[in-house]
Amino acid sequence: MSWHILGAGSLGGLWGARLFRAGIPVRLIFRDRVRLAQYRQVGGLRLREGDDTSLYPLAAETAQDAVPIRRLLLACKAYDAEEAIASIAPRLASGADVILLQNGMGSQDAVSARIPRARTILASSTEGAFRDDTFSVVHAGQGHTWLGDPTHPGEPPAWLNELSEAGIPAQWTDDILGQLWRKLAINCAINPLTVLYDCRNGELNAHTAEIQSVCEELCELLRHTGQTEKASGLYEAVLAIIDATAANTSSMLQDVRSGRRTEIRFLLGHALEEAHRHSLKLARLESLHIRLSEQLATRGLPID
Ligand code: NAD
Ligand code: KPL
């Protein structure tokens, strides 16, 4: 059975290239014929790993192709996910597996609602990749991907072994929502502040009082959403990640510096929506959201 990848960008390209070179059938789906023609002209997907660069001629098609899709990796940004899934929804076979690789939370529910006959599998990834050209991906940081299905947590799909064959570090978890919530909380505590202070992660060590108060509110939110366990040691974990990634520029700051839209709506935005749903007043997070939105608007970037 072939994998289909919709969103042939950094992570989609990284997964695609590794599946392809392991001999596992995989097809990239491009938005339209123009994009497909551009891809064919360069002859495939380029992947740089350390000092090695290879060209992988993965098969490709457009969203309008007629072949049914049985296993799909949706690897676009969270704000593009609904429109992207709508473009191929009629092609999804009944019971197809659709893996959602989006960071943050909120987009997954919106996508699942559009494809009720498919099984949606949520993913949370710490891999690091970026594009240095349109069809060229750099694998910048080794990471891990957790996969899970909150509606059928004890039923890992049979194709998980294909990921290990392809050298994609991944594992099934019975608690993917907990995993996504914990990552969301960590990203909310670090990423917005790196934008506001325009600094590398390590420089946040000068703002630990602010980080602590943000973490206190995130913990309150986690407890109200039933994620009490994920609140445990959050501040200490955030400080440890700041130290471990001290020289890095957060993904949100990278987006802002490159003039790209951020995923704010699916991080802080989602946290505040959930707080509102639980009638929780989180003044620090609200103020952080307002300051970040102002900063994005000043730079001419969308605030959602
Ligand atoms: P990216 O921008 O590099 O790639 C997304 C791709 O999706 C682009 O090529 C874009 O053209 C394509 N796309 C968007 N809408 C489409 C549509 N309708 N039809 C076809 N293609 C469409 O993004 P990325 O960095 O790979 O991130 C994807 C998700 O993974 C994000 O939610 C991100 O936060 C998350 N993530 C990324 C990394 C990373 O290191 N890049 C790490 C962890 C999580
Ligand atoms: O995930 C991250 C990101 O930059 O998006 C880290 C490095 C953990 C900071 O939140």
From TrEMBL:
It is an enzyme of class 1 (oxidoreductase). Keywords: NADP, Oxidoreductase, Pantothenate biosynthesis. InterPro entries: 6-PGluconate_DH-like_C_sf (IPR008927), 6PGD_dom2 (IPR013328), ApbA (IPR003710), Ketopantoate_reductase (IPR050838), KPA_reductase (IPR013752), KPR_N (IPR013332), NAD(P)-bd_dom_sf (IPR036291). Pathway: Cofactor biosynthesis; (R)-pantothenate biosynthesis; (R)-pantoate from 3-methyl-2-oxobutanoate: step 2/2. Catalyzes the NADPH-dependent reduction of ketopantoate into pantoic acid. Its EC number is 1.1.1.169. One of its GO terms (cellular component) is cytoplasm. It comes from Pseudomonas duriflava. It catalyses: (R)-pantoate + NADP(+) = 2-dehydropantoate + NADPH + H(+). Pfam families: ApbA, ApbA_C. GO terms for molecular function: 2-dehydropantoate 2-reductase activity; NADP binding. This is 2-dehydropantoate 2-reductase. Residues 175-289 form the Ketopantoate reductase C-terminal domain. Belongs to the ketopantoate reductase family. It comes from the Bacteria.
